[in-house]
Amino acid sequence: MPPRRPPTDRQLWAYVVDNSIGAALIPFIVFLSMNILQEYSPPPLLTFQQMLDIFDDPDELIHPHAVIPADFRPPTLFRERLITDTLVTLEDLITSYSALHDDILYRRVINPGQPIPKISHLPLLFWHSDYSPRDFRRLVRMAPAAFEYILSRIENHPIFFNNSNNAQAPVRDQLAVTLYRFGRYGNVTVGDIAEWAGVSTGTVDNYTKRVMFALIGQHDHALRWPSHAEIEGAKRWVVSKVGCETWRNGYLGVDGTLSELFEKPAWYGDAFFGKNAAFSLNTQVVTFLPTLRFVDYAIGNAGSVHDSEAFRMTHIYHHHARLLGPGEWIWADSAYPSETCEGV
Ligand SMILES: *[C@@H]1O[C@H](CO)[C@@H](O)[C@H](O)[C@H]1NC(C)=O
Ligand SMILES: *[C@@H]1O[C@H](CO)[C@@H](O)[C@H](O)[C@H]1NC(C)=O
Ligand SMILES: CC(=O)N[C@H]1CO[C@H](CO)[C@@H](O)[C@@H]1O
Asked: What's residue 135's pLDDT?
């Protein structure tokens, strides 16, 4: 491949002339230039008859299919110059055309523009992790220890390794950018996030997709029903907290929370208006009280859906007979009707 260099105007022009018309135009231009030279140059080109006269023996006239002898010289100096000039011009054109052709194939753009300077704020984020956990939390919405734990869970996921020649960015960076993105409101665009991380918007999307993929792989590890021993321990914990033996079976709690949306959704927008006087989504979470681990959830309900209604989408609502032992129940506030757990 010829050395890469920015295309000149002439090369761009040659590119435009490319494809079907280019091939036809170049010989035409050469022909035209020869004609112009013929008209304006002092010694006119020889006619065919004059050419014949120059050769003593007509047999020496070059046959159209003959190989040109190495010692062949055109009859006049002018003619020689005309032919070499034309050939040089033609060669130049062909060289620059094929250089441009290769260049465009390689870069896939006609006008490459200027590379965008990129400055990453990630080093500052990781500095905060050591010296200013509060700022770390402000940026990625979690404590450094939580970040490290999630990183240790996902960093060996195969999505972060592939056969590509270009190694991916460290998983730590990919996780940080994704969490930063998750923690922004609708008034921050992907472009803003890309600028913050010093990468392109496409890369922000790729990081997010990979991290989401790896995180979903952790679903069953993070959300699981407590073991029998954990439940027994939890019951003792409840008694120690409330000091009342009768409540020992209440080791789970449920509540809903509304997450505000940036703007009213275009479709069925009013249905998202919740009791927090904003357009929101309802999330139900069942927690294991001693550790506050989530054991069940329901997501995706519109903000106007009542907590008790959203609770019907949880796993435990449908399978409480199997999941809860005799006499076990769930702590909830008055928004949840008590009959939900009746007979359990
Ligand atoms: C985006 O909106 C949130 C919530 O109103 C606000 O706290 C934040 O400062 C805003 N960010 C920008 C960059 O305007
Ligand atoms: C994002 O990932 C896709 C698929 O692996 C890849 O083709 C694309 O070039 C990536 N984009 C960026 C900006 O790295
Ligand atoms: C083998 C493997 O895991 N390849 C992954 C390489 O990365 C892309 C995303 O950038 C994944 O889609 C592939 O699965």
From this structure: 96
DSSP for 39-69, please give it. HHSSSPPPPHHHHHHHSSSGGGSPPTTSPPP
Q: Is 279 exposed, middle or buried (CB count within 10 Å of its CB: 0-12, 13-18, 19+)?
A: buried
- If you average pLDDT over every residue of the chain, what do you get? 83
Domain chopping of the chain, boundaries: 9-107, 122-220, 224-341
Quick check: CB of 159 below 6 Å from ligand 3? yes
> In the structure encoding, which two tokens stand for residue 313, read together?
């989408």
Strands 293-302 and 330-331: unpaired
- Of the candidates 180, 289, 308, 30, the one whose C-alpha atom is nearest the C-alpha of residue 298 is 308
| 11 CB near ligand 2 (under 6 Å) | no
How is the beta sheet containing 330-331 ordered, strand by strand?
A: 293-302, 280-288, 252-260, 330-331
Measure Cα distances from 309 to 32, 298, 312, 337 in Å. 84, 10, 5, 10
327 CB within 6 A, ligand 2: no
Spans of the chain, pLDDT less than 70: 1-3, 7, 10-28, 32, 35-70, 72-80, 163, 338-344
Atom of ligand 1 nearest to the CA of 192: 13
Look at the chain and count its residues: 344
Task: Identify the pLDDT of residue 214.
Answer: 95
* Cα(161) to centroid(ligand 3), Å: 7
Pairing relationship of beta strands 252-260 and 293-302 according to DSSP bridges: unpaired
Tell me phi and psi for residue 58, to 5 degrees.
-60, -25
Q: Quote the pLDDT of residue 344.
A: 37
In angstroms and rounded to an integer, the radius of gyration of the C-alpha atoms of the chain is 39
3-state secondary structure of 219: helix
Give the distance, in angstroms, between the CA of residue 336 and the centroid of all CA atoms in the same chain.
Answer: 43
CB of 174 within 6 A of ligand 2: the answer is no
Chain segment 234-244, per-residue pLDDT in tens: 999 999 988 88
User: Cα(328) to centroid of ligand 2, in Å?
Assistant: 51
Angle 9-16/77-107 helices, nearest 10 degrees? 80
